[in-house]
């Protein structure tokens, strides 16, 4: 099955002849493309122009379909539109007003003279900004574009659509306003400076699509510099993965505490996921990079990476991915950097669990679904859609409502638990180990659990404690 990014619309003009549409549909069917719908765009006395919505494997397949359509006598193919690109025209988000502007009184209240009183109130008490401005419900979405959704280093401007998607999720699912801020800089101190200078209107900072080790260094620098919470996307991804594993392993006849979990990918996502799995009590967690298992005996590793992978690979296994997967109950794929073959999955314990983050879905071999008992990926068109948005929407809702000073590991673990129990409430299965992102009670459940963990950790600001 293809990804939604390979849904296309092909516009074609057909002669107004009986049976011509049937010929066209037959030509398309022979290419293996799936027809989603046909709409009439224009009719004349001699022709009908139609848009045909299709699901194809990739761009080359779309061209093959176009040529097959054009081969039908009398058919003129006018063009191919990628539906994902069309959907993004003018961006996915925009500003909106909360105050009416319909009369002179509205003008006076929104700006002069009324606004001066609000400015003076904030000047007298900066905490008032949380109540009288957008600050209390706003999150800055930050990236340098160095690790975009498995596509690699595309730069800050190319990362803007990905940031817009997170802003869309925050607004639609959690009522939080997210504002994208791609930063055209690669030095941690200068990124931190830019974010710090722009941070005053925000109640939190969300980091995403930043390559390791810069991702870790920037999160640490901002956490030390700012008095508002900082959340890296990788922590939300890890919460979703953990929830999925908690529910998937019993279906496969296992449990997290007794399982060996192999993490394919030693970037920021892989290391953060491994740390959370260790915290949650996984039997053993082994992180692999392109060379093989991360262990203390490898001389080719950066000391920082070894430090971040501490408490993993307790038996110090070595060798390539297939070697460490032998007998493992679960495989978590966080990067496309580690090649995975069907034989690698076949070397695992009977009825294995294989989960992949959105950025790593393409790393899974096509045979994975047949080899594993439970699979999950970052594809909303397949069962078990794993996305960090399962966690970060509720985490941010709670963090802003409680005006937390930091987002702790306990809060992330609580979010994972809430995702797990939300799925369990409706019954789990091999095709439902996490709730759908659109589940009506998901954000509320995650927010409630996160809020309780924040209060237990003592990171709730006094103004929001009551």
What tags apply to this protein structure?
466 residues; 16% strand; Rossmann fold; alpha/beta; 13 strands; 3 domains; 4-stranded antiparallel β-sheet; 5-stranded parallel β-sheet
Description:
It is built from 18 helices and 13 strands. With 466 residues, the chain is α/β, with parallel strands linked by helices. The chain is globular and about 75 Å long. The chain has three domains: 4-87, 2-Layer Sandwich (Alpha-Beta Plaits); 132-228, Malic enzyme, N-terminal domain (Rossmann fold, 3-Layer(aba) Sandwich), CATH 3.40.50.10380; 234-466, 3-Layer(aba) Sandwich (Rossmann fold), CATH 3.40.50.720.
Summarize the structure.
The chain is an alpha/beta fold. The chain has helices spanning 20-30, 59-70, 83-87, 104-110, 114-124, 129-132, 160-174, 188-198, 214-225, 233-251, 268-279, 303-308, 321-325, 342-346, 368-371, 389-401, 409-425, 442-457; strands at 7-15, 34-43, 47-55, 76-82, 138-143, 177-182, 204-207, 230-232, 260-264, 284-288, 330-333, 353-356, 374-376. It has a 5-stranded parallel sheet with strand order 10-9-11-12-13.
From the N-terminal CA to the C-terminal CA, the straight-line distance is 50 Å
Strand fraction equals 15-25%
Question: In total, how many domains does the architecture comprise?
Answer: 3
Rg computed from alpha carbons, rounded to a whole number of angstroms: 25 Å
What is the tally of helical segments?
A: 18
Can you tell me the residue ranges where pLDDT is under 50 for at least 5 consecutive residues?
none
Give me the count of strands.
13
CATH topology group of the largest domain = Rossmann fold
CATH class of the largest domain: Alpha Beta
Strands in their spatial order, largest beta sheet: 10-9-11-12-13
Mean pLDDT: 92
Architecture per CATH nomenclature, i.e. the level-2 architecture of the largest domain: 3-Layer(aba) Sandwich
* Shape estimate: globular
Largest sheet: 5 strands, parallel
- Name the CATH superfamily assignment of the largest domain: NAD(P)-binding Rossmann-like Domain
Give helix % range: 25-40%
Class derived from helix and strand content: alpha/beta
């Amino acid at each position: 099955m293809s990804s939604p990014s390979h849904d296309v619309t092909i516009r074609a003009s057909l002669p107004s002849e009986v049976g011509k549409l049937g010929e066209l549909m037959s030509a398309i069917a022979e290419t293996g493309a799936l027809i989603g719908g046909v709409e009439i765009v224009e009719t004349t006395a001699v022709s009908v122009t139609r848009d045909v919505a299709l699901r194809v494997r990739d761009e080359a397949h779309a061209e093959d379909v176009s040529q097959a359509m054009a081969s039908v006598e009398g058919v003129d193919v006018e063009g191919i539109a990628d539906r994902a690109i069309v959907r993004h025209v003018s961006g996915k988000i925009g500003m909106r007003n909360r105050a009416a502007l319909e009369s002179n009184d509205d003008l006076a209240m929104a700006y002069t003279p009324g606004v001066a009183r609000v400015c003076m109130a904030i000047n007298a008490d900066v905490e008032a900004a949380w109540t009288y401005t957008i600050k209390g419900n706003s999150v800055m979405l930050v990236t340098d574009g160095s690790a975009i959704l498995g596509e690699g280093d595309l730069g800050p401007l190319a990362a803007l659509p990905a940031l817009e998607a997170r802003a869309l999720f925050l607004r639609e699912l959690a009522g939080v306003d997210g504002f994208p801020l791609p930063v055209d800089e690669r030095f941690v101190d200068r990124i931190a400076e830019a974010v710090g200078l722009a941070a005053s209107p925000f109640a939190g900072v969300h980091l995403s699509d930043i390559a390791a080790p810069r991702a870790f260094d920037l999160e640490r620098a901002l956490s030390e510099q700012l008095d508002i919470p900082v959340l890296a996307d990788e922590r939300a991804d890890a919460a979703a993965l953990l929830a999925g594993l908690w529910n998937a392993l019993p279906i496969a006849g296992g449990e997290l505490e007794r399982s060996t979990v192999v993490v394919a990918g030693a970037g920021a996502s892989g290391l953060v996921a491994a740390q959370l799995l260790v915290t949650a009590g996984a039997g053993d967690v082994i992180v692999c990079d392109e060379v093989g298992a991360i262990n203390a005996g490898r001389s080719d590793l950066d000391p920082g990476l070894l430090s971040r992978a501490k408490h993993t690979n307790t038996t110090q296994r070595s060798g390539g991915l297939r070697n460490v997967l032998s007998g493992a109950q679960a495989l978590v794929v966080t990067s496309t950097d580690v090649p995975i073959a069907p034989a690698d999955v076949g070397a695992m314990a009977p009825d294995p669990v294989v989960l992949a983050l959105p950025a790593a879905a393409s790393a899974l071999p096509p045979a994975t679904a047949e080899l594993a008992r439970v699979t999950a990926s970052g594809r909303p068109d397949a069962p078990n859609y794993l996305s960090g948005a399962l966690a970060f929407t509720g985490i941010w809702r709670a963090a802003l409502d409680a005006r937390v000073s930091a987002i702790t590991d306990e809060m992330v673990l609580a979010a994972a638990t809430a995702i797990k129990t939300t799925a369990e409430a409706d019954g789990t299965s091999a095709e439902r180990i996490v709730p759908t992102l659109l589940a009506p009670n998901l954000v509320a459940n995650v927010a409630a659990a996160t809020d309780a963990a924040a209060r237990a950790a003592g990171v709730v600001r006094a103004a929001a404690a009551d």
